[in-house]
Structure formats: C-alpha cells, structure tokens
Specification:
four-stranded mixed β-sheet
Length: 135
C-alpha cells in the first residue's frame, strides 16, 4: 500500500484498487466505466464537502479494491450534522441523476441512480446502514 501524507490526512492507495480498476475498464465494452467512476468520485466529494463545512477533521482517504473509504472524526458533531454528512453522498448522486435526466444523459443518470440506491442499502458500512444507526 502506498501512503501519502497531505497535511494531517493520509491518502492510501492500495494495489487492489488499481487491479480492480484495470479489470473494470478492460471489460467495459459499453463505455460506462468513466460514468460510474465519476459518479463514485462525486458521491465521495459530497461527503468531503459536508465534513469540511462542519469542521470534521479528515483522518484518511483509502482507495482499495472495494471502493473508497473516508475516515473522519464525526464523534464531536451533532446527530443532525452526522446525518447530513452521511446523506451527502447519496444526495449528490440523486441531484446528478435529476440533472442527467434533464440533459438527456441516460448513462450518467443510470450510474448515479444505481450508486445512490446501492449506498442506501442497510448493509455493513454503506451509507444506509450508518444512517439507520443515527436514528
């Protein structure tokens, strides 16, 4: 694993991330890979923007085979702010789905809609499960 320290945040790049990305793009016959990757990055950017807005210190960003994991200190935030941080990624995907529909970009719409619904599942460390724990 390669680790780069930026200020007080560790950016970790695992070999498995690059292996999965290589396979993903190798087998991407329909060109949906770029839309899906962009939707994922926008999702995580939504979380990061809310963390910064609420002053939640960012510990690390890890890119690994199963996706992207952001580690932050949310303990000092109120329940409402934690909920806003956790919901931000799916909110961004939902907004991008709507914008994609209005622009007629069905490929980006599908990537964002699938990512939004998938992340709202109440499983493991997905946003849906973390949001349920806030209730």
């Amino acid at each position: 694993m390669l680790e780069i320290k930026l200020c007080n945040t560790a950016l970790r790049l695992d070999f498995s991330f690059f292996a999965v990305m290589a396979l993903f793009f190798f087998f991407d016959e329909h060109g949906t890979g770029a839309s899906a990757l962009c939707a994922c990055l926008c999702h995580e950017l939504g979380h990061l923007i809310m963390m910064c807005a609420f002053g939640a210190p960012l510990r690390s960003i890890t890119l690994y085979g199963a996706g992207i994991r952001i580690s932050s200190e949310l303990e000092h935030l109120t329940r409402g702010r934690k909920t806003a941080v956790l919901a931000a990624g799916c909110t961004v995907n939902l907004a991008l789905s709507l914008a994609s529909y209005l622009c007629g970009n069905m490929q980006f719409l599908a990537a964002n809609a699938v990512l939004c619904v998938f992340n709202l599942l109440p499983l493991g460390e997905l946003d849906g499960a973390l949001l349920l724990r806030q209730a």
